[in-house]
Specification:
The chain is mainly beta. It folds into two domains: 108 residues, Immunoglobulin-like, CATH 2.60.40.1120; 844 residues, Maltoporin, Chain A. The chain has eight helices and 60 strands.
Length: 987
């Protein structure tokens, strides 16, 4: 039998086991539910087996879930929706014992022990108290943001807003929001050293977006909670980054209505650009024109205890002007024969985004033990912005003038979900789900950029203007994404054990077509043409991941006061690129691109180990430790990198000496192509087959943690945790036609500037340039860095957090997070011997953050709430455009890109500042809300008055990173103090 057939058989058996006959449960709960667990004892302290334990709540359409305590007196009730629960303990010969008022959130196991005394069943002992705040069984680290929290605090209802509430979450400063002036942009974030590309979005436990694809904005009006797992995820999860799950509302046996609306405009914002920023070149901030949100949600019974519905509808958007002279204004000289950027100070750049979401969900108790959920989400979104700033992993910013911006429209943007739950007995549970996501995205140029406008990039400022030129998803594109997600599991719960096996899988497709005006772009240096880039257009890709499958088994085993969390996961990801034909373009002939399979074909085993110890046996103090391995969230990226269209040389540069100053490149003014294989049909970029196939080749990270969680008093919990994360299987690209011997060393003299280390003027050596004979040679192979040496990346960090409910409805949460990341690739010698800043340290001072969230009711039906964060400021980056004339004296020749031309305008980029050694001041933001509640019949109207950026702070969020006359000139500052009015009605 072939190996292929064996694997198909293994996967089929795993799927059957998960969906039909096997055992297990989530680490006591799934991605959208929680659990209640505990121990039943008699009055002497002896354990009581055989006790019937029932959990009831209005959140359950089946009303009651029941189990029986095992021979150790332990019980677990899993798969419980978020809500308020009562737990009843019944045993013949004993009085009935009842625990009330247990608040359960997603991913939390609430401890509810019972001490039963001998007596008649008719006698009931009822205990009401504060809900437990310590989870003594689970090891995962997570933040749960309830609908209540979203309703009372002044915070964005999107990923950026959630990040401001999560300790250790790191967003680019440019994504910081003030009252909606970022328009609820969906920015990915990392936590405790994780990669933002490993973040995943879920809706009802079904995957929406992975690997940085963030096109779907969930409607929080339809969400009961937003749960964000950050560390120590169970074997159900493959990635090591944040796992954000929107837990939907399901309706209920009573009709409930919620309606919201809020609005602000330029008259309610205060300017915050002072003399200091003006002296640095930022003369205007980012004044809003308007920010709005309105919508409603309605849920209730179609048939009581049998069929519920919930429907939500929300519209939201914003428009604001953009500050900064670099790309912050329309180009006054946008004519076809005008080639320099001249800011039109009367036409500031702006961005505008509008969104709408309409959804409906049905919850059907089809039979006593069969529950079915069906949901449909429909969205129409437009990022109609006229300019854009991007920042790469090194902190280097690229800017686009409004004419080089893009109008990105996403429609249709639909998501369909179906789930099934079947508690076959009080010990056996089967679950399954299917999600289908469809997205179409079109990025068109703004009206000012006709097809005749050739893109120009000014190297001294990293500004692209006139039009946009990119073969990536940031260019003018037509894109289609399609994701089918399936999951299934079977659980067996004894009380002391919660064992689960399951399978989850995805089928993904990504098609894109890209266009570039005139199929070329130009590069100028201080207004002088220096380079032409030619593109092998037309260009398109068509890739699939089919399938990505994970099969897992895990057990949560309670032994007295110790609960072990043990799991193992098998991951397989298989991708391919479809075959197709491209017509001829200006620089390339027609091309037929073949289908490419097994890009990649990866298999991995990833263990998950951990334990939680109830230190004093009273459920108030837990000591936890965990160790787990997670695979990278590659998704379609690997198949895309290996698609034939991307393995060809699709662009090449030529130096340009515009001798006659007419801005028209003639053949006599152009140097040789940077790659002699440009436009050829022979693939010159490949991936090592050994990397693409087999076991243990996928990028990964290990996570280790240790924590102590303690209940200081009822309703007040404290958590102190240490985290360590390290990465492996780094990939590098090696040009097999050259070696380190093909490079010559040189030095440059750094510019004199008081802001540079030592005031500048120093020699920067250890730089290398390729020799002219080797410059055109290119045949690259992507492989593991282990072939060339070692590369490491390690994060160490500590969090101290508190969570409290106090008084008559007060709440407070937050804490301090700090960490350090150390990277090193000094021993990995690939092609160039240049190793400038190969050992990097992002210190504790650069990652320490303080975040607080709170709310408290005041007399007269008023309520006061707020959020506070103090985070590191923007790190300085200085990339310097060094000319051939500056380099040649120490190099002893012209740059390799010059070829044999005696006059050469070629340049190269040199970093002048070691990363993370200099930065802007720390960023502090305080947002407040004062609300007043009015009772209107059976309804409640909450009027809201929000005040964002109370201190009217203006920290720099983005700046020019290219060294030159405008280096460190701010391009964006935090939005000025903003007032917003809103209301929410609940019935």
């Amino acid at each position: 039998m072939s190996r292929k057939c064996v694997w198909k058989g293994v996967l089929l058996v795993g799927l059957v086991l998960a969906l039909v006959t096997s055992y297990g449960t989530a680490w006591a709960q799934s991605a959208t539910t929680g659990a209640i667990a505990g121990t039943v004892r008699d009055s002497t302290g002896g354990v009581l087996p055989g006790v019937t334990v029932e959990a009831s709540s209005p959140a359950l359409i089946e009303k009651v879930r029941s189990v029986v305590s095992d021979d150790q007196g332990n019980y677990k009730i899993i798969d419980l929706r978020p809500g308020t629960y009562s737990v009843t303990f019944v045993l013949a010969g004993f009085s009935t014992f009842k625990r009330e008022g247990i608040e359960l959130t997603t991913g939390f196991t609430a401890t509810a022990n019972a001490d039963m005394r001998v007596g008649a069943l008719e006698e009931t002992v009822t205990v009401t108290g504060a809900s437990p705040v310590v989870d003594i069984q689970n090891i995962r680290q997570q933040t749960v943001i309830s609908a209540e929290i979203l309703a009372v605090i002044p915070n964005g209802k999107n990923v950026s807003g959630f990040a401001s509430l999560i300790l250790g979450a790191v967003l680019p400063p440019v994504s910081m929001d003030v009252g909606g002036n970022r328009g609820e942009t969906a920015a990915a974030f990392g936590v405790h050293g994780s990669k933002s590309s490993d973040m995943e979005w879920f809706l009802d436990g079904m995957g929406i977006a992975s690997g940085g694809s963030k096109n779907f904005g969930a409607n929080t009006l339809s969400s009961a909670e937003v749960a964000v797992q950050t560390d120590n995820m169970t074997a159900e999860i493959s990635r090591g980054g944040p796992q954000l799950n929107y837990v939907p509302k399901e309706g209920g046996n009573t009709y409930k209505l919620v309606a919201v609306g809020n609005y602000t405009n330029s008259h309610l914002q205060q300017a915050n650009i002072g003399p200091e920023l003006e002296a640095r070149g930022l003369t205007r901030g980012t004044p809003i024109q308007f920010v709005y949100e309105y919508g409603a949600g309605l849920g209730g019974p179609i048939k009581k205890d049998r069929l519920w519905f919930y429907t939500g509808h929300r519209w939201w958007g914003h428009r604001n002007n953009l500050g900064g002279l670099i790309g912050g204004f329309f180009n006054k000289t946008q004519g076809l024969n005008e080639w320099l950027y001249t800011p039109d100070l009367d036409r500031p750049a702006y961005e505008e985004r509008w969104n709408q979401d309409n959804n409906i969900r049905f919850t059907w108790q089809a039979a006593q033990k069969h529950k079915i959920n069906l949901a449909w989400y429909y969205q129409d979104n437009c990022s109609c912005f006229n300019n854009q700033q991007t920042t790469d992993a090194a902190g280097i910013s690229t800017f686009r003038a409004p004419e080089a911006g893009g109008l990105q429209h996403q429609f249709p943007n639909n998501f369909y979900i179906g789930t099934w739950n079947y508690p076959a007995s009080n010990r056996f549970l089967v679950e399954a789900g299917l999600g289908v996501y469809n997205n179409r995205t079109v990025v068109n140029p703004p009206p000012e950029a006709t097809k005749a406008h050739i893109s120009v990039t000014e190297l001294s400022t990293s500004l692209e203007y006139r039009s946009r030129a990119s073969l990536s998803a940031t260019g003018y594109t037509f894109r289609k994404r399609h994701t089918n997600t399936a999951r299934g599991s079977a659980s067996y719960i004894t009380g002391s054990h919660a064992f689960k096996v399951g399978v989850n899988g995805q089928y993904l497709s990504y098609d894109s077509a890209v266009s570039i005006n005139q199929d070329v772009s130009y590069a100028f240096n201080r207004g002088i043409p220096v380079q032409v880039t030619q593109y092998a257009t037309p260009f398109k890709t068509d890739v699939r991941v089919k399938p990505e499958i994970g099969i897992y088994a895990q057990d949560q085993w309670t032994i007295d006061k110790l609960t072990l969390n043990l799991g193992m996961r098998f991951d397989m990801m298989k991708g391919f690129s479809a075959g197709y034909t491209l017509p001829a373009g200006p620089f390339v002939p027609a091309r037929t691109l073949p289908r490419v399979d097994n890009v990649p074909n990866w298999k991995d085993w990833t263990p998950r180990l951990g334990g939680a110890y109830d230190l004093f046996g009273n459920g108030r103090t837990a000591v936890k430790a965990a160790l787990g391995k997670f695979v990278e969230g590659a998704q379609t990226d690997i198949a895309l990198a290996n698609a034939p269209a991307n393995t060809y040389v699709n662009s090449a540069t030529r130096t340009w000496n515009d001798a006659n100053g007419d801005f028209v490149p003639q053949a006599s003014e152009l140097g040789p192509l940077s790659n002699a294989n440009f436009g050829g049909t022979r693939a010159v970029t490949t991936w090592d087959p050994d990397l693409l196939n087999g076991w243990g080749k996928r990028g990964y990270n290990w996570q280790a943690s240790a924590s102590v969680q303690h209940e200081l008093r009822p309703g007040l919990g404290m958590n102190v945790a240490y985290f360590r994360r390290w990465f492996g299987n780094f990939r590098v690209t090696d040009n097999v036609l050259i070696s380190p011997a093909d490079y010559d060393p040189y030095c440059i003299t750094a510019p004199v500037d008081a802001r540079l280390p030592g005031g500048g003027g120093n020699q920067i050596c250890g730089l290398y340039d390729i020799r002219p004979a080797a410059f055109p040679l290119s045949q690259t192979v992507t492989t593991l860095v282990n072939e060339f040496g070692d590369q490491t990346e390690v994060f160490d960090g500590v969090d101290v957090s508190v969570s409290a409910r106090f008084g008559a409805g007060g709440l407070l949460s937050g804490g301090v997070s700090t960490g350090r990341t150390v990277t090193d690739n000094c021993n990995a010698l690939v092609d160039s011997p240049q190793k400038q800043f190969c050992h990097g340290v992002n210190p504790f001072s650069g990652q320490t953050q303080l975040k607080l969230t709170g709310a408290y009711p005041l007399p007269g039906s008023f309520q006061f709430s707020g959020t506070f964060q103090n985070i590191p400021g923007l790190s300085y980056v200085a990339t310097y455009v060094a000319t051939n004339a500056q380099i040649a004296p120490t190099l002893g020749r012209n740059l390799g890109a010059c070829g044999t031309r005696p006059v050469c305008t070629s340049t190269t980029i040199v970093n002048l500042i070691e990363p993370f050694t200099q930065s802007e001041p720390r960023i502090t933001q305080l947002d407040l809300r004062l609300s007043r509640i009015f009772r209107i019949g059976m309804g409640r109207l909450q009027g809201q008055f929000d005040l964002y950026n109370l201190f009217n702070a203006s920290p720099v969020l983005s700046q020019i990173t290219r060294f030159g006359p405008v280096w460190l000139q701010p391009t964006t500052a935090l939005g000025g103090r903003l007032f917003k009015f809103g209301a929410q009605y609940d019935f």
